[in-house]
Amino acid sequence: MFAVIKTGGKQYRVAANDVITVDKIEAEAGASVTFPVLMLGGESVVVGAPLVDGAAVTAEVVEQGRGDKVIAFKKRRRQNSRRKRGFRAELTTVRITEIRGA
Asked: Which residues contact 25 (CB under 8 A, 6 or more apart)?
């Protein structure tokens, strides 16, 4: 059984015991979080409109961290104009513990 969940403006396909990295969630390591379910899959597919009623995905926060540095470099040729900015996204690693169906 798998589910499609929504968090941080993105959608993720998850199954039990999956470990995924998502945008930062305000929770301590070891805490439990619940995600809304957009779709349940398996033997029969249930698609929500927009959410599946009575379905939820529970996950445990493994760690809080930061992603790799992304460099945004802009240069205008022959203008002696350039700009360099760095960015590191704040990320949360979670382990999917349970998928409750409708």
From this structure: 7, 8, 33, 61, 92, 94
With H, G, I as helix, E, B as strand and everything else as coil, classify residue 34.
Answer: strand
Going through the chain in order, the beta strands assigned E by DSSP cover 2-7, 10-15, 19-23, 32-35, 37-41, 46-47, 56-66, 70-76, 81-87, 90-100
Confidence (pTM): 0.83
Strand partners, 13: 4
Residues 6+ apart with CB under 8 A from 43: none
Q: Contact at 8 Å (CB) between 42 and 2?
A: yes
pLDDT digits (tens, 9 = 90+) for 1-60: 899 999 999 999 999 999 999 999 999 999 999 999 999 998 889 998 999 999 999 999
- Write the DSSP string, 58-84: EEEEEEEEE---EEEEEEETTTTEEEE
